[in-house]
């Protein structure tokens, strides 16, 4: 190999050594954290973290190498010194490109090795559901994306003098390229290739595009590394222009009259050096969120490709990255070439320096948080919005600290995301059990911000000793620990008080005679099984095989199908539909009676009888309200509707059965052993961390919830101060449904039992009105 | 500069500029600069800040190209053979940016790849002479030690021409002396040193030739001794303030009044200059002595200086151009 190239390669490798070390060590540490999580809890979802890490870390390397090799060299002036040596500029480009490709390649190999180890070691406990991502086509796609990221990064790094500007432009560029390529792929796949020519064309275009990607950086590199040519004049230029002859005359704005106060001066100076990149990042966030909002606004959330794609994840990641870099901008402009000495030399107050650097980036971050809040409908769920906001706050704090911490200023832009990732990965063991946990990661920002405040003196003096590093490490550890500590303190601190008297009353409450055997779950028939004889005499409008009958959920599903199957204009169909509703009301009533006898599990009422009753009434109501049903038809089906309504359980039966079911379920709950413990078919203890405490907390919450419900009128709905985490899935338990529109839609206790009679009253009123109007 | 000297310089020149113009937007950096630097000399390029010295060096080293005119170094065109020029010359900028994470031996090893064999040996000898610690990273070296590393890197390949842009600014007297001695040593073995500086006292100690740039224009190019011989400082004490005395003959570059004393910097002062100041002229205590380079420099570059124009002497109306 050429000696010059060899030496350049050595130099470039050394230049990215710190970045490469940070990424490779980060990969290993994160992987160890995943292993620990799998070891603690072998949940299938953990495999996704491994896959995410496998893809993310090499791409972080691809993102970081160009600014480190080009931008930071330009910033430190060494690129200028290199230009003074007799080195051909293409050799410099080749060296940097080779080092970049090798670094990304090594990162891929290392990351893949760890993935392979994870899969090999944990294969038995983790059902592998990500085979499609490990196919050769997918791997080639990932590798190509890294290549694209690397060379686009090189192109922008040579093009922009500032490494930061290159990075900011790179984010929207690469997102745009990614989607453009996906669009091209989709277009290609949607067209037939009768002569098999397109596949050849596809290969050729891929080769051409790859060559273009690799050669693309040469153009700006020549401009940056080779001599600056100016166009030669044909003749000598005209005489001397005025030079240095202008008298010194500052603008009126900068005169004595407008002499700024110290705060104003600091804010002005900070804004001048931060404004451009901050505005750039803010524009990226605004454009991204606007596009994201428009997409939801134009197409809605019901389209399959909108509801199931990974856009919310991409948007979240980009926004967190944007906020992280906004944090980096706090002290980065002062750290370039140690400009902060200007502040230190003049003995400016630490407080002024710190606050003035925080204000503008913090406001920009608040803008991002507001965008997430107001334009975040595309995130599909409110918790996701909250998590995105939390991660944005955390990223900002990580950027803030890194911009002070890193002696090589550009490195902060890569260390900050790694630090954010590290703190997020530390949350991983808790995520499976505590769905609200991730919202708490914003708390980790507090120690990091405090750390940056405490470091300001050392930063100004550039006096980083090992004690400083130790202090920073301590603050980071504190940031990692503060999240679970606060979470569990809040979780256990917020436990409802004990209700000993009420418990004693409940334990003494008489239960139906048959209740004793309902406490042995295996021996208790399901309600469908229990109602088999009844079903024999009250056939459902559709054929139900034996297996379906054994499942109340399937029974209801099929009956609902039957309800909705028939058209509403035809009298016969209408009658069949009404009869189906009647059947459901009948079996719901039968279920209630069975519960009062203690013959079936109380959950049958809580989970099925109540919702079925409501579904049936809802169907009847829709039929009656339908104005296409003419008066004559309505008159014909009115007796059937009235029969159906009569079949419904009485108010007393409904309330009594519901209260009894709740009391029975509470009594059964007392006899259950966890973890995990269930109440009315839902897990109520968050996980296996601190199991004794979790059980006590779950017990108290169940007591409190049941006590509140039984003290309320059933028509009032749930108590207002419900604990969201009691039943694992936030809000779901109360059946509001708003946050689970696209989430898990499971059967849950329907505490809105008052809606059934409400519908019944409505139907009766509507019938009367229509009769009156017909007369 | 006399004609013979001029011809000699042109004949043996290691670098040559012919009517070079360079402009950055509205700012004129160089205006009609023509220059020949003879070989084997220490050639000092003087000028105030922003005079165009660094631009001239950038054109010579091929980092910038002239808007008009021709520049060559060691017989090679700066526009088209910059790589060859860089191979032959050594260059130290005013603030050399070196890889701070490397140690001095590492940066020498790295740089040796771009020069012929022998670079590394000479470089290491120089570092030993300069007493630079080997195992300390460049970021931990003092400013003087960094400057020594930069100089060693620039002369490790024994270049025919060494270009130094403000090499001693910010260095302590000891390091400065070492720098200057090394330049004289190089000239002594037939190498050429182009030194850009405004440390005039230093230049005066080592330079063989001097060029003064002012507002992008070359005002003076001459051997230092010749310049100092030709330019004299005439001092006269007048009887009373406000007395009018005649201006000495020759090319008066500046006139300075300090109380009752008047000083003129005059080029080509005739031997019989005292005859112009009879007792009736009101001037007493007349004296003439060789001007220092600093006095010459200020006389040429000070925009606020008084330059008396003698109507019957056309030469005096263009004193600066006359010098070149």
Automatic annotation (TrEMBL), chain A:
TM helices/strands, residue ranges: 16-40, 46-70, 91-119, 139-160, 167-184, 196-219, 278-301, 313-333, 354-375, 387-404, 411-431, 437-455, 475-494
Keyword line: Membrane, Transmembrane, Transmembrane helix
Domain of life: Bacteria
Keyword Membrane: yes
Protein name as annotated: ABC-2 family transporter protein
From TrEMBL, chain B:
SUPFAM superfamilies: P-loop containing nucleoside triphosphate hydrolases
Protein's name in the database: ABC transporter ATP-binding protein YtrB
Underlying gene: ytrB_3
Residue intervals of the ABC transporter domain: 15-240
Xref: Gene3D superfamilies: P-loop containing nucleotide triphosphate hydrolases
InterPro entries referenced in this protein's UniProt entry, alphabetically: AAA+_ATPase (IPR003593), ABC_transporter-like_ATP-bd (IPR003439), ABC_transporter-like_CS (IPR017871), P-loop_NTPase (IPR027417)
Keyword line: ATP-binding, Nucleotide-binding
GO molecular function: ATP binding; ATP hydrolysis activity
Organism: Allorhodopirellula solitaria
Pfam families: ABC_tran
Keyword Coiled coil attributed: no
């Amino acid at each position: 190999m050429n000696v010059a190239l060899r030496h350049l390669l050595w130099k470039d490798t050394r230049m990215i050594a710190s970045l490469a070390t940070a990424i490779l060590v980060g990969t290993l540490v994160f992987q160890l954290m995943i292993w620990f999580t799998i070891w603690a809890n072998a949940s299938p979802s953990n495999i996704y973290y491994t896959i995410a890490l496998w893809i993310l870390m090499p791409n972080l390397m691809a993102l970081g190498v160009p600014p480190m090799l080009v931008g930071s060299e330009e910033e430190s002036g060494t690129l200028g010194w290199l230009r003074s040596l007799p080195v051909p500029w293409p050799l410099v480009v080749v060296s940097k490109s080779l080092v970049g490709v090798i670094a990304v390649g090594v990162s891929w190999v290392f990351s893949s090795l760890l993935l392979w180890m994870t899969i090999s070691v944990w294969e038995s406990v983790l059902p592998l559901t990500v085979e499609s991502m490990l196919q050769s086509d997918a791997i080639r796609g990932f590798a190509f994306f890294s290549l694209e990221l690397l060379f686009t990064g090189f192109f922008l790094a040579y093009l922009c003098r500032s490494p930061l500007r290159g990075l900011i432009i790179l984010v929207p560029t690469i997102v745009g390229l990614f989607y453009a390529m996906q669009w091209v792929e989709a277009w290609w796949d949607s067209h037939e290739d009768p002569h098999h020519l397109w596949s050849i064309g596809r290969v050729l275009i891929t080769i051409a595009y790859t060559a273009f990607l690799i050669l693309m950086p040469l153009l700006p590199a020549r401009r940056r590394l080779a001599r600056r040519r100016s166009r030669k004049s044909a003749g000598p230029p005209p005489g001397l222009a005025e030079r240095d002859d202008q008298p010194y005359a500052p603008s009126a704005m900068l005169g004595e009259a407008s002499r700024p106060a110290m705060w104003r001066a600091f804010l002005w100076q900070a804004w001048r050096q931060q404004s451009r990149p901050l505005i750039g990042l803010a524009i990226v966030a605004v454009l991204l969120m606007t596009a994201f909002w428009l997409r939801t606004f134009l197409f809605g959330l019901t389209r399959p490709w909108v509801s199931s794609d990974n856009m919310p994840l991409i948007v979240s990641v980009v926004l967190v990255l944007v906020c992280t870099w906004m944090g980096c901008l706090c002290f980065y402009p002062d750290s370039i070439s140690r400009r902060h000495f200007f502040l230190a030399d003049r003995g400016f107050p630490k407080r002024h320096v710190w606050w003035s650097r925080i204000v503008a980036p913090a406001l920009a971050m608040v803008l991002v948080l507001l965008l997430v809040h107001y334009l975040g409908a595309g995130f599909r769920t409110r918790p996701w919005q909250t998590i995105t906001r939390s991660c944005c706050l955390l990223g900002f704090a990580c950027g803030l600290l890194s911009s002070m911490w890193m002696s090589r200023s550009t490195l902060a832009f890569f260390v900050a995301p790694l630090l954010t990732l590290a703190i997020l990965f530390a949350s991983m063991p808790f995520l499976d059990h505590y769905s609200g946990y991730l919202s708490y990661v914003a708390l980790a920002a507090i120690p990091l911000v405090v750390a940056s405040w405490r470091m300001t003196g050392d930063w100004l003096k550039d006096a980083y000793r090992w004690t400083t590093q130790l202090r920073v490490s301590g603050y980071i550890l504190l940031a990692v620990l503060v999240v679970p500590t606060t979470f569990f303190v809040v979780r256990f601190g917020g436990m409802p008080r004990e209700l000993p008297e009420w418990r004693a009353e409940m334990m003494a409450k008489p239960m139906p005679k048959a209740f004793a055997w309902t406490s042995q779950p295996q021996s208790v028939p399901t309600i469908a099984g229990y109602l088999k004889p009844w079903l024999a005499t009250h056939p459902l409008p559709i054929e139900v095989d034996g297996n379906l009958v054994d499942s109340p959920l399937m029974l209801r599903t099929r009956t609902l199908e039957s309800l909705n199957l028939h058209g509403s204009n035809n009298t016969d169909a209408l009658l069949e539909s009404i009869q189906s509703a009647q059947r459901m009301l009948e079996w719901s009533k039968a279920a209630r009676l069975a519960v009062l006898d203690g013959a079936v599990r109380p959950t049958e009422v809580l989970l099925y009888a109540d919702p079925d009753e409501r579904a049936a009434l809802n169907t009847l109501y829709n039929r009656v309200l339908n104005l296409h049903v003419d008066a004559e038809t309505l008159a014909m089906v009115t007796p059937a509707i009235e029969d159906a309504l009569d079949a419904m359980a009485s108010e007393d039966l409904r309330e009594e059965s519901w209260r009894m079911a709740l009391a029975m379920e509470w009594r059964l709950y007392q006899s259950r052993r966890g973890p995990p413990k269930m109440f009315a078919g839902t897990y109520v203890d968050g996980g296996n961390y601190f199991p004794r405490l979790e059980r006590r907390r779950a017990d108290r919450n169940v007591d409190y919830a049941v006590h509140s419900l039984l003290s309320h009128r059933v028509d009032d709905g749930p108590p207002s101060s419900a604990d969201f985490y009691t039943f694992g899935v936030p809000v779901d338990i109360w059946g509001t449904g708003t946050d689970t529109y696209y989430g898990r839609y499971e059967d849950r206790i329907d505490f809105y039992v008052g809606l059934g009679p409400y519908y019944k009253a409505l139907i009766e009123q509507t019938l009367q009105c229509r009769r009156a109007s017909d007369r | 500069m006399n004609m013979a000297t001029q011809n000699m310089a042109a004949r043996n020149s290691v670098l040559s500029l012919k009517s070079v113009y360079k402009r950055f937007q509205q700012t004129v950096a160089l205006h009609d600069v023509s220059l020949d630097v003879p070989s084997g000399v220490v050639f000092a390029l003087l000028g105030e800040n922003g005079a165009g010295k660094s631009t001239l060096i950038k054109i010579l080293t091929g980092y910038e190209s002239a808007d008009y005119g021709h520049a060559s170094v060691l017989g090679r065109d700066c526009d088209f053979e910059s790589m060859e020029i860089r191979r032959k010359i050594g260059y130290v900028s005013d603030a050399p940016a070196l890889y701070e994470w490397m140690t001095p031996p590492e940066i020498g090893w790295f740089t040796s790849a771009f020069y012929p064999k022998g670079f590394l040996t000479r470089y290491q000898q120089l570092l030993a002479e300069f007493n630079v610690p080997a195992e300390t990273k460049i970021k931990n070296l003092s400013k003087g030690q960094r400057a020594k590393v930069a100089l060693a890197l620039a002369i490790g390949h024994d270049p025919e021409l060494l270009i130094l842009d403000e090499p001693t600014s910010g260095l302590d007297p000891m390091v400065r002396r070492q720098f200057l001695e090394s330049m004289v040593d190089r000239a002594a073995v037939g190498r050429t040193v182009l030194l850009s500086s405004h440390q005039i006292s230093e230049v005066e100690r080592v330079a063989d030739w001097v060029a003064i740039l002012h507002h992008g224009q070359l005002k003076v190019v001459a051997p230092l001794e010749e310049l100092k011989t030709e330019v004299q400082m005439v001092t006269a004490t007048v009887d009373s303030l406000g007395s009018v005395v005649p201006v000495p003959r020759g090319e008066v570059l500046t006139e300075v009044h300090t109380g009752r004393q008047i000083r003129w910097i005059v080029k080509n002062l005739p031997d019989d200059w005292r005859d112009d100041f009879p007792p009736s002229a009101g001037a007493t205590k007349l004296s003439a002595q060789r001007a220092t380079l600093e006095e010459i420099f200020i006389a040429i570059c000070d925009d606020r200086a008084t330059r008396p124009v003698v109507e019957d002497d056309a030469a005096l109306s263009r004193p600066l151009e006359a010098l070149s």
